Amino acid sequence: MSSCYKITVDKAIPFAEQLFGELGEVTLVPADSICNAGLKQTDALIIRSVTQVDESLLKNTPVSFVGSATIGTEHLDKDWLESQSIHWCASPGCNAVAVVQYVMSAISYWLNARQLTLDDICVGIVGYGAIGSRLAKLLSYLGIESLLCDPPKQATGELVNSHSLEQLTEQCNVISFHTPLTKSGPHATYQFINHEFFNRVDCQIPKLIINAARGNILDNEAAIKWCDKGGDLMLDVWPNEPAIDDSLLSKVMLGTSHIAGYSLEGKFNASYQIYRQLAQVLGKTNIVSLEKLERELLPEPSLVTLGSGTSLTSLFLSSYDIISDYQILKEVYQQKGASGFKFAREFYNFGREFKGQQWSGKSAFTELKSFLDNL
Ligand SMILES: NC(=O)C1=CN([C@@H]2O[C@H](COP(=O)(O)OP(=O)(O)OC[C@H]3O[C@@H](n4cnc5c(N)ncnc54)[C@H](O)[C@@H]3O)[C@@H](O)[C@H]2O)C=CC1
Ligand SMILES: O=C(O)C(=O)[C@H](O)COP(=O)(O)O
């Protein structure tokens, strides 16, 4: 490795200097300023989901490594990167637990609002990957019924008990989406939550749809129409981010600013995964272990105080406070208009995942806590 190996990193990626500083000279740049002209001296580029990485960004630059500190990869033009022999990677599963924590808080809020209990629900999980499988595992542990829908995994035989989206709409009162955004192929997800889908979800009785995957798997107009009919919709991700539709924001039951994966642990995992892959590409073998860095860089667990009569729903709401994130988004949107969405993300205060929390006050949850710590 040359001492002047140049690494440009989105400045909103935590732990960048501590990790990538070991591998080269780090320049932190705000996402909005990452541009072709600024990459003329860059060997490795480390970005988030908001930076489109394609020919127009990288042509005539020396960039030979692109790392995305995210699970999603639709912002990378992988065909072009591969055609140029530019090594690309992302951070699979990095913040999967944070998204599960988000979904459990969302469901808990809905159950309280609709005066239902965990025993009343059957949860449809669309996309049985890192997030969907962890969600299913937790629901099963809690004795909550769930149905899985993952046609690509059904086709390869990785999932034998996959149901169709139609079956989920008939049999589930909660459906949570955890697919990537894809625009082509037999299982494309672009706007697959559309009029046809919503027409099948009878909202005469309470039904909850959660999208914490990607905004453009949802059709904006169809979503508004369904909310007008009385459907309960919770969105972390929105069509056309960051320019979200204020009409849709006013109709959802809860909405947040694409922060379901914004946990300190998730951010740390993402940065570590890219650090490890860049180190490998550079042929550096003595990388620092995840456990050692976790001990050094992550703060002490945060304290979550549970009252003596805490129910499972209030436990999940205490573990991650979705209501407060909804209020923040509404407030900044009112104050700042369309730029409010970006603002809420930029100044987000990362929370802790289950394993970064210490629960006190209700010993009955010790077993659940240890299950969640290892999710
Ligand atoms: N809101 C947020 O902050 C976050 C959102 N995400 C989003 O969540 C998505 C899922 O994350 P992971 O579970 O880690 O991904 P994953 O790649 O592990 O799993 C995705 C699963 O979706 C399945 N799938 C693909 N097309 C499908 C279709 N048409 N119908 C049903 N299933 C389909 C795949 O076969 C795969 O099993 C990511 O691609 C990302 O876009 C990820 C992290 C945070
Ligand atoms: O990991 C993903 O995929 C996500 O959606 C991220 O949580 C989004 O985070 P940023 O791209 O804003 O870091």
TrEMBL record:
Binding positions for NAD(+) per the UniProt entry: D150, T179, D236, G261
Alphabetized GO MF terms: 4-phosphoerythronate dehydrogenase activity; NAD binding
UniProt pathway annotation: Cofactor biosynthesis; pyridoxine 5'-phosphate biosynthesis; pyridoxine 5'-phosphate from D-erythrose 4-phosphate: step 2/5
Domain of life according to the entry: Bacteria
Predominant localisation class: cytoplasm
UniProt KW NAD keyword: yes
EC number: 1.1.1.290
Pfam families assigned to the protein according to its UniProt record, in alphabetical order: 2-Hacid_dh_C (PF02826)
The reaction(s) this protein catalyses: 4-phospho-D-erythronate + NAD(+) = (R)-3-hydroxy-2-oxo-4-phosphooxybutanoate + NADH + H(+)
UniProt KW keywords: Cytoplasm, NAD, Oxidoreductase, Pyridoxine biosynthesis
Positions of substrate binding: S49, T70, Y262
One GO BP annotation of this record: pyridoxine biosynthetic process
Active site: R214, E241, H258 (proton donor)
Stated family: Belongs to the D-isomer specific 2-hydroxyacid dehydrogenase family. PdxB subfamily.
Function as written in the Swiss-Prot or TrEMBL entry: Catalyzes the oxidation of erythronate-4-phosphate to 3-hydroxy-2-oxo-4-phosphonooxybutanoate.
Subunit comment: Homodimer.
Protein name: Erythronate-4-phosphate dehydrogenase
